[in-house]
């Protein structure tokens, strides 16, 4: 039976490999970004309106161009100016000076690359269309001058990196895998671009991204400069604002078990207002204030709360009403004391509050409020959390119909009050119960991001594995998720092929087979054993991983390592980088063999496998088996050591 399972999986692989692998590009890789015989990134796709001009930004080791920024610009503008200077120098050997816009006026004959809201942009007559939202950008050539600007400086970051992509092919496959072309001439392109990203504000809370601000910025993730843009975040109502250790004697402020606040208690609300004011003062760069109920399924059951939920269409309606009151009070205080501050207040549409206070109107073909008094204050946002979604399926699929309709309901309600952009999503790319085999969400998130954006979501925070690195295709998932959150029109299969070509170099051919194996085998498990992409689905159960399948996976990685022999002599440093990346992919089959089939392994296999597992888990900081399992994998590896080497 086990052989039959493997045979079926491999049969699916053959079909799937043709569909996914046909876009694969050849070529080896170069870790320092040199051009060599490396294939160009597939993402260098110039808009039709952009073509080379007769002018060159850099030519034969010289350039008349300077990068212009304002002296009072923020850290984001300074960062992208430095990045443009650095990567042009790495590509051509020419260092463009960074100069201040003081005493400069717009002159189309001048040789400038202007970043942000400079005097040059102001004098150019250009404006930023409102449909570009916060981080969409304008990139325009007027004469010899290039002007890049956005409402939010994160948009200008994107413009700068896109410019480098268009001109020298710059692409960030991972924090340590950067590609660009070596050039002697860089043409001035006839930029006439108004670009709006799929998701306006993008955040991917994966450990590798969260721990490396430069990497996050390079992947076009929203950069929180200063001390951070969140005044408070998460489950804050009790945990941060009104801890029971301080306020617990006010029993009427909480439900009976003191696990949630009583939203109808005015005395509690006024104290929360005061606490929020303190948080705002202590977070001078903060914009977002979270009024998040605690992470449980409890509610206050006092008569006032029960009556309010009945009137307002449920817990979500009650939370929205409560947040409106908080926002009005705090905004009035801000107007008197900090008129320059703009604060946005968020409440959870999560678990008990997921359902919008709405009903379907057949005539209008949209959701309408169930409560005549429903309102949304101008600075109030809802954070919808589709924690029950099936992340292996499109968001608009029948499997996700409940979550789709919930988001659509919130979207319609907020739009009806003129707040169509006041929707934030906390979505999930974390296999919470099993880090050691990847979540089944390959190739789906682009559709999720686009569907959410089409419903008015302006900010997506995707929660990946944040407390540990993971063993299987972690860098690939980060790359493709960041790329498709920024541009959902990119072809996922091409992104994967391009990534594997560059990231695994000489081993790319077999690593593509390994990737295709996962995709096809997961499809087989989905069809035959109910394998899921749900947040709490356990991907590492023995029923999914016959011993023969794990051995086949292990040998596929061995084959990939053998393909690296061509690099071993010609470029030993590159060889070691690629060797370590490929060897990392054996962690999953080794872990699963130790977990489920230790008795089938020879002593020699046990010792060899343990050496690989222990070394590469430590090297890549893979420490946890599941969420909130601090050091659990490290401890497990040590317990296996005792068993194996006794």
Protein described:
With 646 residues, the chain is of the alpha/beta class. The chain has 3 domains: 2-28 and 500-600, no CATH class; 52-196, Chitobiase, domain 2; 227-428, no CATH class. The chain is built from 22 helices and 19 strands. The protein has a 7-stranded parallel sheet, with helices on one face. Strands 3-2-4-6-5-10 form a 6-stranded mixed sheet. A hairpin with a 4-residue loop joins strand 15 and strand 16. Residues 1-37 have low confidence and may be disordered.
Strand content: 5-15%
Task: Tell me the total number of β-strands.
Answer: 19
Counting H and I runs of at least 4 residues, what is the number of helices?
22
Quaternary organisation of the protein chains: single chain
Number of domains: 3
Distance between the termini: 34 Å
What is the overall pLDDT average? 92
> Helix fraction?
40-55%
Estimated radius of gyration: 27 Å
Sequence stretches where pLDDT stays below 50 over 5 or more residues: 1-37
Largest sheet: 7 strands, parallel
The outline comes out as globular
Within the largest sheet, what's the order of strands? Answer: 11-19-18-17-14-13-12
Structural class: alpha/beta
List keywords for this structure.
single chain; 646 residues; alpha/beta; Chitobiase, domain 2; 7-stranded parallel sheet; 6-stranded mixed sheet; 22 helices; disordered N terminus
């Amino acid at each position: 039976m086990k052989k039959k399972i493997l045979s079926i999986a491999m049969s699916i692989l053959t079909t799937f490999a043709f569909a996914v692998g046909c876009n694969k590009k050849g070529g080896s890789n170069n870790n320092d970004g040199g051009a060599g015989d490396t294939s160009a990134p597939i993402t260098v796709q110039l808009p039709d309106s952009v073509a080379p001009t007769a002018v060159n930004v850099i030519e034969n080791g010289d350039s008349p161009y300077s990068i212009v920024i304002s002296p009072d610009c923020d850290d984001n503008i300074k960062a992208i100016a430095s990045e443009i200077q650095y990567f042009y120098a790495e590509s051509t050997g020419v260092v463009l000076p960074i100069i201040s816009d003081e005493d400069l006026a717009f002159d189309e004959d001048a040789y400038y690359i202007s970043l942000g809201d400079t005097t040059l942009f102001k004098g150019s007559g250009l404006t930023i269309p409102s449909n570009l939202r916060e981080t969409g950008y304008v990139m325009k050539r007027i004469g010899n001058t290039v002007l890049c600007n956005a409402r939010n400086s994160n948009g200008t970051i994107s413009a700068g990196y896109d410019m480098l992509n268009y001109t020298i092919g710059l692409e960030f496959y991972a924090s340590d895998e950067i590609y660009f072309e070596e050039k002697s001439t860089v043409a001035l392109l006839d930029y006439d671009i108004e670009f709006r990203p799929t998701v306006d504000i993008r955040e991917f809370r994966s450990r590798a991204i969260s721990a490396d601000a430069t990497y996050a910025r390079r992947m076009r993730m929203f950069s929180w400069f200063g001390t951070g843009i969140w005044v408070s975040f998460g489950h804050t109502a009790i945990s941060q604002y009104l801890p029971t250790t301080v306020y617990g004697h006010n029993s009427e402020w909480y439900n009976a078990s003191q696990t949630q606040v009583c939203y109808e208690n005015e005395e509690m609300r006024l104290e929360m207002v005061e606490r929020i004011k303190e948080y705002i003062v202590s977070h001078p760069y903060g914009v977002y204030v979270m009024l998040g109920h605690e992470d449980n399924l409890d509610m206050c059951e006092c008569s006032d709360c029960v009556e309010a939920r009945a009137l307002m269409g449920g817990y979500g309606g009650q939370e929205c009403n409560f947040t409106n009151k908080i926002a009005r009070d705090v905004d009035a205080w801000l107007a008197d004391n900090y008129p320059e501050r703009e604060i946005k207040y968020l409440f959870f549409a999560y678990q008990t509050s997921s359902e919008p206070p709405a009903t379907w109107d057949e005539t209008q073909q949209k959701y309408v409020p169930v409560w005549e008094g429903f309102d949304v204050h101008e600075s109030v946002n809802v954070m919808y959390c589709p924690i029950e979604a099936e992340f292996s399926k499109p968001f608009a699929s029948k499997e996700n119909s409940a979550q789709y309709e919930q988001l659509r309901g919130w979207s319609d309600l907020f739009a009806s009050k003129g707040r169509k952009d006041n929707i934030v999503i906390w979505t999930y790319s974390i296999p919470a119960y099993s880090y050691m085999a990847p979540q089944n969400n390959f190739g789906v998130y682009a559709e999720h991001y686009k569907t959410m954006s089409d419903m008015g979501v302006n900010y997506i925070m995707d929660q990946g594995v944040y407390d540990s690195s993971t063993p299987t295709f972690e860098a690939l998932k980060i790359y493709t998720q960041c790329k498709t959150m920024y541009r959902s029109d990119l072809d996922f299969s091409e992104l994967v092929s391009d990534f594997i070509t560059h990231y695994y170099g000489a081993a790319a051919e077999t690593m593509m087979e390994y990737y295709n194996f996962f995709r096809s085998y997961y499809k087989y498990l989905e069809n035959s054993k109910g394998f899921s992409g749900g947040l709490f689905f356990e991907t590492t159960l023995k029923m999914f991983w016959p011993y023969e399948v794990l051995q086949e996976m292990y040998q596929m990685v061995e084959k990939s390592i053998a393909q690296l022999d061509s690099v071993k002599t010609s470029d030993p440093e590159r060889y070691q980088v690629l060797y370590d990346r490929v060897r990392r992919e054996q962690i999953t089959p080794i872990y699963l063999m130790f977990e489920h089939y230790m008795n089938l392994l020879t002593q020699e296999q046990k010792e060899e496998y343990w050496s690989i597992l222990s070394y590469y888990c430590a090297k890549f900081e893979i420490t946890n088996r599941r969420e909130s399992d601090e050091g659990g994998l490290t401890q497990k590896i040590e317990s296996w050591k005792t068993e194996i080497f006794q």
